[in-house]
Amino acid sequence: MSAQVSSEPRHLRPLGDAALLLLSAVLAWQALYEVVGDVALTPPLATLANAGALLGSPIFWRHVSATAAAFAASLAIAAAAGVAAGLALGFHRFSGLVAEPILTALYTLPKVTLYPVVLLVFGLGISAKIAFGVMHGVIPVILFTMNAVRNVDPVHLKTARALDLTAVQTAGTILAPAVVPEIFTGLRVGFALSLLGVIIGEMFASQRGLGFMIINGINTHDVPTMMAVILLIMVFAIAASTLLLAADRKLHRRG
Amino acid sequence: MGRVARVQLAVILGFVAVLELLTRTGAINRLTLIPPSAMAAHLWKMLVGGELDAPMTQTFANVAIAFALSVALGFAGGVAIHGLPRLRRLSDPLLASYYAVPFFVFYPLLIAVFGLNRWPLIAIGVVFGAAAMAIATLNGLDRVPRVLRKVARAHDLGWAEETFLIVLPAAAPHLFTGLKLSLAYSFIGVVAGEFILSGSGLGHAIAYAYDSFDNPTMYALMLFVVALAIALNATLHVWEQRLLARRRRQ
Predict the structure, then answer these.
(1) Domain-embedded: residue A62
(2) Has residue A196 been placed in a domain?
(3) Domains in chain B, number
(4) pTM (two decimals)
(5) CB contact under 8 A, B86 and A17
């Protein structure tokens, strides 16, 4: 990388690359549209226009707030429960060893197929959506937190004992800095998956929310609305992930 | 069997026993959940009666094809992105947000592209599985120790020799993780796609049973899918442990 000669200013290059990638994605999308036609796809510009129109419609924002409420609740539950369980399983080594393969197996389950059970237990409505978001998001948080605790350098803990730190001091000065970056990575993954869970949940169990707008679009062959909603969700997911990834890297570098 | 495995078995059996107790005593409504023994009995009846033959064959074939394609495409993609640092920097946030996009919604598009056959489902499986393989490949290639690359240069190895003797063995644990994840994701993609949108396969059978309030069939099929996921994971876990143990001995 270092020896490359380039006429453009260095710091601008990532932006130029991003523009290039975006351009090729848009071109591929347009080409796909030329092949497939209106049956299942709207072209990039029209989709952008539709998305803009959606952003100006109050009904759309009502759906957004329904999704946002369910997403916030499921992320909060997944984060709290996941970190708590992960800390416990990390500190108690044997329980962690027992739980890890079971959790991994649950993680690889096609959770959509368990959706009927969630509906039977929670009924239609927001609690089923939240539960579905939690089901998707909580396991990565547990696994990352558990591994973070396990990987704390024993020397650091010994140092704490040698310095006669209290439990609170140890937690604040030794454990937290050691585990927070990894836990953050877990929360980042949990963020993406909870969002997916909530949206899939809305596709079946709800009359409100972005997932409902998508499935309604599919069922009524309202391709423009479906595409516009998907575009907005993707933009949100990618933007949020980019920010979280940048924060994640910062945390890891500081360590 | 080690102590960990014994406790794991006890945990799972205990969980099943609690469910059995709660459903038998009526603490959990039969309309919500049926006893695990009833699920197993019904599943057995379906398996013996041949009811599952067609959906099972279809789902397994689709998962197998999707898995093979995911590994090939994901590996190639990972190698390509690794070789292009400029593309690499851009792809990281994309890969990080990848699994937040509900790709199922493109099923109608996939039908328009591939036609009404097995390929739209396989495509969803590949869309899910390939990214996991690509991410794992990137991780693996990133972690090949630089000193090993130097060894290759010192010995004047050709491209093929360096790849097969140095790079691939060094990246193997990560590649194995990629295989594991991409199998899981192909499975998730295909079964979830069947559940949501398709008219055949195991996933569809569950959705159909649910829509017709056929709880015994629905739970039998869910048990089957859960058991399948656990069996697959356990097999890969044991295999991986063996591989790792052999590496440590070397």
Answers:
(1) yes
(2) yes
(3) 1
(4) 0.83
(5) yes
